[in-house]
Design a protein that fits this description.
The chain is mainly alpha-helical. Helix content is 75%, strand content 9%.
């Protein structure tokens, strides 16, 4: 092996992981897992939001005296157009709020990731990989 390779191996072996470091590494991993859960949840909510918006658009074209079947769990309620409009608008608003909350949570996790990366890379340099 070349001299530089030996130096890199020695550098990796000399860095000891204390309990505090291990806690930070574990926190980074948990936050990373949570971030990916939130991203999947956001994608599902965005799909629901798109379907709800399409439903609202379809209802706009319907007659005012039309009845709609609104799904609640495993049951369907038959409601008039005005009630259906109100229900779908409330559902869309809730989905939009949920998506904003998820975005906020992901941003918080990204900020914490940045802090942990600075600390951990400063100590472990190239011997740790915190990239996705």
């Amino acid at each position: 092996m070349s001299k530089t390779m030996l130096d890199k191996v020695d550098e990796v072996l000399e860095t000891e992981v204390c309990a505090a470091d291990q806690k930070m590494i574990n926190l980074f991993g948990r936050l990373n897992n949570r971030k990916h859960e939130l991203i999947r949840e956001k994608k599902a909510k965005q799909e629901d939001l798109e379907k709800a918006s399409d439903s609202r658009d379809d209802m706009f074209l319907a007659d005012d005296d039309s009845k709609f079947k609104y799904s609640m769990g495993e049951a369907f309620l038959e409601v008039n157009k005005e009630e259906a409009d109100t229900m779908i608008e409330n559902y869309i608003n809730k989905l939009e709020e949920d998506i904003k909350k998820i975005d906020s949570d992901v941003n918080d996790i990204n900020e914490k990731h940045k802090e942990l990366k600075v600390i951990l890379y400063a100590k472990f340099k190239n011997s740790i990989n915190l990239e996705e």
